[in-house]
Amino acid sequence: MARVPYLQRDELPEGFRGIFDNLLEERGYVPNLYRTLAHSPALLRAFIDMTADIRTRTSLQPKLRELAILTVARLTGATIQWLSHIPLALAAGLSSGQLRALTDWERHPSFSEEERAVIRFSEAVTRDVNANDEVWQALRGYLDDRDAVELTLIVGFYNMVARFLGTMKVDVDPEYLAALGTQNPSIPT
Length: 189
Known about the structure:
Elements: H1 17-27, H2 32-37, H3 41-56, H4 62-76, H5 79-91, H6 96-100, H7 113-128, H8 133-140, H9 145-168, H10 174-180
Helix pairs in contact: 4-5, 4-7, 4-9, 7-8, 7-9
């Protein structure tokens, strides 16, 4: 059960109600994450802007971005994050086989060395807060300065999202489950 109530549009200050209107227009519903964040309307707006910028204003390959986000979700148990990024990962070029193989990424043949470097880095930052020099140098064999900075920011941002979702006990949206055709959400472990 969520630790704070999910806000409705009319509970937002007048100047922020358009955020919910836009979400309804784009998605057909307002996700529980956003309804929780709405307790701080200015931060909700900034959060939405940041997620949009991560998706549209970075040079990092979308496939690598989604691989990093799903790695964070898998390690942190962030079910909502996992479910909401599966369609994005598939659209970015990850295969359903790769999604299932994320628990065995070091040995599974469907991952390239570049993808392994991204997963290894994402795991290190998620588990240890930072990556050691060996992990960093392996990553740098594939990513330039901009992409390395963006990946680091993305991994950090989605770790924050996972911790927010878990701490606030945000419920999985039925819309995520319906879109995936399941009632039993699970993250490969």
